[in-house]
Amino acid sequence: MVSMLIDFLFIVRFFFQSTPESFVNDLNYLLLPYLDRLERTRPNIPGNVLKDYLVSLSEDSLSLVALLYQADAREDLIKSDKMLIRIALDCIYACISPSETINAFRIYESLPDRSDEDDDEMNGLQDELDVLHVVLQKFDVLKAFDTTITFGKLRSKSENYHESSKILRHFSRQSIAKAASDENECRTALKVLLKLR
After folding, report:
1. DSSP state of 153
2. With 60 as the cut, is the pLDDT of residue 179 above it?
3. DSSP classification of residue 27
4. What is residue 92's predicted lDDT score, i.e. its pLDDT?
5. In the prediction, which pLDDT does 76 show?
6. What does DSSP assign to residue 61?
7. pLDDT tens, position by position, 88-121
8. What is the domain partition of the chain in residue ranges?
9. In this structure, what are the phi and psi dihedrals at residue 158, rounded to the nearest 5 degrees?
10. b/e for 89-111, b at 16 or more Cβ within 10 A?
11. What's the pLDDT score for residue 88?
């Protein structure tokens, strides 16, 4: 337990000290060698510790996670496509900041394309990525109209018809109030509503 805490603290210190400019270099020369040594002595622990920390880091900002997912060394750090997708989903849905849409799209776009593998687990993860894509598109549209909602809330509401209807009604009222004096705004709001259906 103590050694796991030390591992977690090393990773926390790494991310705390890294800047967007130094991140890729720090990743290659500090974190990867440390996690490789750790993997030899305690398999699977490094991946779980890294995942837990990335998810906690994502609550406020996805910027370092996006840098990690765009780095060439990401395959050395997160070795399986399944883990890469799981961590991405967990990080994006953990984020509560409404200004992280661009980073969420960067993470999404860096994920592996759908494969023709006959692997139920991988196919399920790919289906979850399809849902994520729809959530990101809806979120991008809704944030333009000052609707404050997180990726995770939008996902759970999208899966529930009544909650989705509630979002659309709220958005409609808000858009109508804003667009009442401008015909172009009214048309734009209508197009957005049709797109969100």
Report:
1. H
2. no
3. I
4. 95
5. 77
6. -
7. 999 999 999 888 999 999 999 999 888 777 888 9
8. 2-120
9. -65, -30
10. bbbbbbbebeebbebbbbbbeeb
11. 95
* The pair of three-digit structure tokens given for residue 155, joined into one six-digit string: 């996902």
State how far the Cα of 159 lies from the Cα of 150, in Å rounded to an integer.
Answer: 14
Count of CA atoms in the C-beta half-sphere (13 A) of 180: 5
**20 pLDDT exceeds 70?**
yes
Token representation of residue 63: 């910027």
How many other C-beta atoms lie within 10 A of the C-beta of residue 178? 15
pTM, two decimal places: 0.76
The mean pLDDT value for 59-71 works out to 90
CA distances (Å), origin 93, targets 21, 115, 171: 26, 23, 21
**Alpha carbon distance 106, 68 (integer Å):** 10
Q: H-type helices in the chain, by residue range?
A: 2-17, 23-26, 32-41, 45-58, 63-70, 74-77, 81-94, 101-109, 120-143, 151-158, 161-179, 183-196
Tokens 């996670």, located at residue = 65
Instruction: Return d(Cα 77, Cα 72) in angstroms, integer.
Output: 10
- Which residues touch 174 (CB under 8 Å, ≥6 apart)? 145, 146, 147
Q: Is the pLDDT of residue 196 over 60?
A: no
Provide the token pair at 185.
């705004």
Most confident of 20-34, 120-134, 183-197: 120-134
